[in-house]
Amino acid sequence: MNAPLPAEVLKQHLIDPEICIRCNTCEETCPVDAITHDSNNYVVDPDICNGCMACVPPCPTGSIDNWRLVVRAEAYSVQDQLGWEELPGEKSLPADVEQAPEPVEAGNAQPSQAAASPASAMAAGAAVPPWSAAHPYVNLYTHKTPITATVVGNYRVTGADTESDIHHIVLDFGELPFPVLEGQSIGILPPGTDAQGRPHHARQYSLASPRDGERAGYNNLSLTVKRVTQDHGGAAAHGVCSNYLCDLARNDTVQVIGPFGHTFLMPNHPRANLIMICTGTGSAPMRAMTERSRRLIGSGDIGKLMLFFGARTERELPYFGPLMKLPRDFIDINLALSREAGQPKRYVQDLIRERAVQVRELLADRNTCIYVCGLKGMEVGVLEALREVMMQAGEDWSILHDVLRREGRLHFETY
Ligand code: A2P
Q1: What's the gap in Å between 211 CA and the centre of ligand 1?
Q2: Quick one: 280 and 402 in the same domain?
Q3: Could you say which of 200, 229, 260 is where a domain stops?
């Protein structure tokens, strides 16, 4: 066991700006709001962080797991950290400080003593993968050592006359190794610099293709990218990376980092069931998992697949055509359309309620894993729908929710 640190020494929690992909997971997870960010960095406020570790398991890159012993009064401030391009090195502590160990103050637990914080159990999704998930590789390529991929395909997968310009982009890695699993993501480094003259930071995209390639047996993968022309409030905004990607031509090259993600992974054991709930480009990991399963048809190993997919209209639903061609006895497809003329507005959570019997049947099977990806707002709605579905049968969702989290069977990726 680690010896307690002297009271004036802080094991300061820091985020490595060179590895961080600015996915916001840590900020969302932190139960005490100690994590904040600006356009440059995600940082931890030393005056608020209590070292509970809740943010550490969900971080896809591991950039969150950095610590420096500092004299408490000289801790790196939020302002210092926001300006960093890289982490500072370890500093040696003054000799008199190191020689005076005292018990750690209550209420400011050091990370090594707080790994099992109850706060970490409160996140909606699991911090561990399903037991049978394959072992993922992460961080093989970093900001300092990116890999070059070649664009071998880029085409629109939504109706040409619609506002939603969503592209299916295929990247090939040639002879270089880039092992991935369904549910993982990669970072794209867009060329150029930001308003402060700094290189743009990486943008994260989930894979839309399975582990053995967009084309089976090829060293390639695909992404589902929506061209960003508005911010969340509807004001005009130019998405740096999404516009760069959507405008790429065949044979252009792209700088890639990653892969990332070690929890949002599909089960690997025979007859595991998948409940997939997504909106818009959140369909990328669902496409990857569905395609992985489709390629296993015939092996007798696949379980049930149930998909809830939300989009404004059919024409704005990425991959609508290919999705509707999948055999009905392979995947149970439920489309929630919110702006289809002449139809009532439907969200994925409405359809989960409508299919309560089948959802409950799958939830009763320990081989079922649930994946939710897409708009942040749907997270609460989906959880509420699942609670109601269980309640209708007199069952307690909170108990099942804890089991699903503990067993790595419920995963969220929302933005
Ligand atoms: P809406 O028509 O109300 O925007 P987008 O096209 O913006 O990516 O959204 C994909 C789908 O998700 C749309 O149908 C959108 O409906 C729907 N949506 C928006 N907010 C929520 C929410 N809180 N829960 C579930 N679905 C949502």
Answers
A1: 29
A2: yes
A3: 260
Question: Domain containing 391 — which CATH number?
Answer: 3.40.50.80
Q: What's the gap in Å between 37 CA and the centre of ligand 1? A: 26
Residues 153-205: tens digit of each pLDDT: 999 999 999 999 999 999 999 999 999 999 999 999 999 998 888 889 899 99
What percent of the chain stands above pLDDT 70? 93
Tokens of 276: 């997939």
Q: What is the CATH number of the domain that holds 240?
A: 2.40.30.10
Q: What are the tokens at 34?
A: 């100690």
Angle at the Cα of 367 from the Cα atoms of 365 and 373, rounded to 5 degrees: 100
**Residues of the domain holding 311:** 273-414
Å from CA of 290 to ligand 1 middle = 22
116 domain-assigned: no
If we measure between CA atoms, which residue out of 31, 128, 33 comes closest to residue 78? 33
Residues taking part in catalysis:
205-206, 373, 413, 415
In this structure, the answer to whether residues 287 and 397 fall within a common structural domain is yes
The response to whether residue 49 sits with its C-beta less than 6 Å from ligand 1 reads no
Is there a single domain that holds both residue 286 and residue 384? yes
Nearest CA to ligand 1 atom 1: 338
List the one residue out of 318, 347, 375 whose CA is nearest residue 156: 318
Same domain for 81 and 166? Answer: no
**375 CA distance to ligand 1 centroid (A)?**
7
- Closest by CA to 55, choosing from 13, 2, 110, is 13
pLDDT of residue 106 exceeding 80: no
DSSP for 127-151, written as a single string: SS--TTPPPPP--SB-SSS-EEEEE
Output the pTM of the full model: 0.87
pLDDT at res. 103: 37
To test ligand 1's pocket by mutation, which of 375, 380, 415 has the most ligand atoms within 8 angstroms of CB? 375
Residue 116: pLDDT band with limits 50, 70, 90:
very low
Q: What is the pLDDT of residue 61?
A: 85
Q: Is 282 in the pocket of ligand 1 (CB under 6 A)?
A: no
Q: Are residues 229 and 298 in the same domain?
A: no
| Residue 285 in domain | yes
What is the reported pLDDT for 18? 84
The pLDDT score that the predictor gives to residue 292 is 97
The CB of 375 under 6 Å from ligand 1? The reply is yes
Q: Is the dihedral of CA 192, 198, 204, 210 positive or negative?
A: positive
Cα separation, 358 vs 374, whole angstroms: 23
Does the Cβ of 338 fall within 6 Å of ligand 1?
yes
